[in-house]
Amino acid sequence: MTENTASRMAIIAAHGTMDAAYAPLILATTAAALEMEVGIFFTFFGLELLKKGKIDHLQVAPIANPAMPMPVPNIIGMLPGMTAMATMMMKNMMKKDNVSKLSELLEAAIEMKVRLIACQMTMGVMGVKREDLIDECEIGGAATFVEYASHNAITLAF
Amino acid sequence: MSDKFDQMLDCSGLNCPMPILKTKKAVDGMQVGQVLKMIATDPGSVPDMNAWTTRTGHELLSHEQDGDKYIFFVKKAK
Fold this sequence. Notes:
The complex is a heterodimer.
Chain A (H helix, E strand, L loop, with lengths): L7 E6 L4 H16 L3 E6 L39 H15 L5 H10 L3 E5 H6 L12 E3 L1 H8 L3 E5 L1
Parallel strand pairs in A: 1-2, 1-5, 2-3, 3-4
Chain B lengths: L6 E5 L6 H11 L6 E6 L4 H12 L2 E8 L2 E7 L3
Parallel strand pairs in B: 1-2
Antiparallel strand pairs in B: 2-4, 3-4
């Protein structure tokens, strides 16, 4: 390849719902498969993805999520149990279509040497300690991410 | 086109991005010049395998469809 294409992908993962976790992990693993260097910066609610044992227990809430197909008015989503139900529905849809589990994608990312960087600042703000997070991640700040992304990287935010 | 291959990878039932991830892992473990036969049921794997071989420089020798299965022959180029 002689054209000047990006050799790196830098992703910011700032949300911790199940649907929001798929995009960074699928793109990261695919970019790694395409032999790019990849780094994901987990900040705010994205830190949920890095918490030990949490990756397969993320949820998706139907309330205030009008894009989610529901047979009832959206406000019904506020009732107890609705989030769990919506999460289960979505998990079943994923399973039916043979979409990989988030833990499988995270494992693949680690295996393919995707850098997982936990945001130091939001760890402090949200009271997340180093031992709450998986061993394979590193801790960094905004400068770490910006520096990483400055090297001709495709930069995405989710 | 010869149907000779050195390794077989069956990704039937797996959806994006797994066929590509597994193909990469398989090809990484092979010798240069060897051929991987990959089978997938994910229709997205057709453009994906094209993109993957273009990007990585490995050679997509051929691809064909057999019912709901897509069969690819990839040669490790480097």
